[in-house]
Amino acid sequence: MAFSSLLRATIKCMTCPEKYFEKVLRLAINKLGTDEWGLTRVVATRVEVDMQRIKEESHRRNNVPLDHAIAKDTSGDYEKTLLALIGHGDA
């Protein structure tokens, strides 16, 4: 990765983390095959910090709720775990 790309990612992550992490999630899900490491990393590290804002940004950007995108791209216990972590079904 070029220095300018790293610098841009760092600045975006610091100034607007929900947009940065939404993009990481989108790229992890919208590949041919899921980037499970990227998907798990973002969900597990951001769940207690700003997951609600990331979910809102994901829905705004993609017109699909994040829980639907995850459910479409994963299955089994992995799907259930990710959905529980992001607060699927919370009021």
- CATH topology annotation: Annexin V, domain 1
Percent of sequence in beta strands: under 5%
What structural category arises from helix and sheet content? mainly alpha
Biggest beta-sheet profile: none
Please state the average pLDDT score: 89
Q: Give the low-confidence spans.
A: none
Radius of gyration: 13 Å
CATH class: Mainly Alpha
Shape: globular
Give the % helix: over 70%
How would you briefly describe this protein structure?
The chain has 91 residues and is an all-alpha fold. It has helices spanning 3-15, 17-29, 36-46, 51-62, 66-73, 76-86. The longest helix has 13 residues, at 3-15.
Q: Could you name the key traits of this structure?
A:
91 residues, Annexin V, domain 1, 0% strand, globular
What this model shows, in words?
The protein has helices at 3-15, 17-29, 36-46, 51-62, 66-73, 76-86. 75% of the residues lie in helices and 0% in strands. The chain has 91 residues and is mainly alpha-helical. It has a single domain (3-86), classed as Orthogonal Bundle (Annexin V, domain 1).
Topology of helices and strands:
Elements: H1 3-15, H2 17-29, H3 36-46, H4 51-62, H5 66-73, H6 76-86
Helix pairs in contact: 1-2, 2-3, 2-4, 5-6
